[in-house]
phosphoenolpyruvate carboxykinase (ATP)
Amino acid sequence: MAENVDFSFGNGSPLPNGLAKIQTNGNGNGDKKPNGICHDDSTPPVKAKTLDELHSLQKKRSAPTTPRQGGGQGPFQQLSEEERQKQQLQSISASLASLTRETGPKVVKGDPSKKVEPAKLEVPTALPSAEVAAVSDSALKFTHVLYNLSPAELYEQAIKYEKGSFITSTGAISTLSGAKTGRSPKDKRVVKDETTEKELWWGKGSPNIEMDEDTFLVNRERAVDYLNSLDKVFVNDQFLNWDLEHRIKVRIVSARAYHALFMHNMCIRPTPEELENFGTPDFTIYNAGQFPCNRYTHYMTSSTSIDLNLRRREMVILGTQYAGEMKKGLFSVMHYLMPKKQILSLHSGCNMGKDGDVALFFGLSGTGKTTLSTDHNRYLIGDDEHCWSENGVSNIEGGCYAKCIDLSREKEPDIWNAIKFGTVLENVVFDEHTREVDYTDRSVTENTRASYPIEYIPNAKLPCVGPHPKNVILLACDAFGVLPPVSKLSLAQTMYHFISGYTALVAGTEDGIKEPQATFSACFGAAFIMLHPTQYAAMLAEKMQKHGATGWLVNTGWSGGRFGVGHRIKLPYTRKIIDAIHEGSLLNANYTKTNVFGLEIPDAVDGVPSEILNPENTWPDKEAYRETLVKLAGLFRNNFEKFSYYKIGKDDKLTEKILAAGPLF
């Protein structure tokens, strides 16, 4: 029998500090009960008898909350939950099937580390074109599928199982991409078949490196075998393109939670109801990550291979864990699929004013594309990849992939504030105790990145669509210092400079030489385009002409001399120029035509000193200006030679117009 306890000081006397005595031998109403127990009756006791039961009460099953549309037209509508789950698993099993040895693997949803084994649904998927020769060990095991996990679930998977994954002080997850900290363009290949041989851009200047169908299938088999050998794989079913009429269903099968979370952020996230009715994907990525390709395989030049098969609508990744390969691989796919539907795919930023005026921003690294397209007075439609269709513009992606090197709250407040729970930080360095990130640290790589959903940007327009653009802005950081701060372009000039994709970088200073180096990237994204650049340019001009858009060339680089002599054009001046373009005031300005490049420059821009608008006026040495101008014109002409023999349309008239819009000297 328990004793009654009286916590008093001495023989029933009060405590020395004057506090009341604490007694447990009563019920608070003066009634003394020998067996009284002190407990809290403010809430009823939990309805669980064991810890496992208690833990089971902690989680509840997700259910669709979005209204069903279309009267049950989806492929999984009017099905029981068991039938829906079975069809979903059949689709995933078919994606993971070997092409030669067996049917699809036995798949089951859930984490294999959980104590309670989920119901196993064996899904034999017959492949009509494949002859089953033998059954491999992978066919005897179950492959656990972690399907469209939430960011919180993916955090748990990454931190528990992936070395190098940590939660930072702001709630973002930091991870490492392994040996590769950037894309491997020389290891990216496209299957060349009867169709793609005619349709794609091959040869000099093209980013498309060919491979044959058999080699692709060898690499596909290698990736699928590796994924099937794992205890678990991550599967994301998501969308590309916010334009519902033209969106693409994509499936990403990967080995790492980091990759699944990255694509969760970068692709458009389906609603629960859309996920139930997802059906068969239009395109599938098999990301085997660190597992290398066989270097003795034909066409392989390293242990890395990123392979696109446009006929099969599949992509295989071997030997690299850099997540950007998936993002840009899908962008290449969109550069092929969208033009077939007369939709222009664009490597650009895009924003919209409060009156519905849309502007496209093109520019290579260092031109200010992100800074200038991010405007608190305008809505952000997207920062990198877009489509221009008969419906207007639409963002291809559901997220942003921002550079982090030297990031600060003052320079990029929106990006800074977007780095929170759900954001993936790649290859950054942080304090081991506080977990605060040092964005200036280049110990791992200079290409540090952050991936986050677009809704993390306060002024993002959701859904990410807009009307037809009014302005097409081509940005160039001209380190030669001879291009005007702003010039209005004709359609032919827009096509010429769009195809050229010019900017200038400053060379390294190892030997003490600081000369600008011209950089050209066709369509401001040569690494991702599939067709000949002039085809995209012709589509751009056609849409600009049809919808009354104006082209502009904006120099964010140097004035008064080349790099090392002159000075960079002040950002406030460039912002004033962009504001004038948005407002439409530059359309009514008086213009003067320059020599050599034949650019139309305005006589005045509100808030910008008139003397800097004509670059010749800013150079003290006029002879040096003319020499540098002719030098840059020659670089443009040399770069354009590889495009000049491509015939556009039924005759060469458009080609001739584009060539005539280039520099003349």
Q: What stands out?
A: DSSP finds 16 helices and 34 strands in the chain. The first strand starts at residue 6 and ends at 7.
